[in-house]
Amino acid sequence: MDDLTDMSKIRSFFSRFTAGMTLTRFSVLMSVVNLVLFNIPFFKFVAENVENRGTFIIVSLVLLMLVANFFATYLFCFLCRGIGKGLVSLTFILSAACVWFINVYSVMMDETMLGNVFNTKY
User: Fold this and answer.
1) 87 closest CA partner among 68, 100, 73
2) Per-block average pLDDT, block size 10, for the chain (122 residues)?
3) CA atoms 51, 95, 85, 87: torsion sign
4) How many CB atoms lie within 10 A of CB 31?
5) Residue 62 and residue 70: Cα distance in Å, rounded?
6) Environment class of residue 50 by beta-carbon count within 10 Å: exposed (0-12), middle (13-18) or buried (19+)?
7) Does the model's pTM come out above 0.85?
8) Rounded to an integer, what distance in angstroms lies between the CA atom of residue 76 and that of residue 73?
9) Which terminus of the chain has fewer Cβ atoms in its 10 Å neighbourhood, N or C?
10) C-alpha to C-alpha distance for 56 and 15, rounded to whole angstroms
11) Among 105, 93, 101, 95, CA closest to 117
């Protein structure tokens, strides 16, 4: 019985959190979550390899990623909310897989590396 009350408490918390959430707010939230969860290895790489004006470059990249993620999320969800949320979820899953690969093998991902990941047989 306690499990049901705990689940109802969790469900009521999330319903209060998401009640009245606009598409813009959802897109901003997903953009920030994507930036924080999936781009830390990228920013570590940039910080280690930049020589002059590193702070300006990192701040510019943060703003660029926030804006690009916002527009992509907003566009996906504006065109069709159900499919857009599914695409955002798929993007998060693929980003998590890439971050795992980056952390385990200590390499940066590019288009050839992504091709190698998807062409493996195991």
Assistant:
1) 73
2) 65 70 85 87 84 83 92 87 81 85 79 76 65
3) positive
4) 20
5) 12
6) middle
7) no
8) 5
9) C
10) 39
11) 101
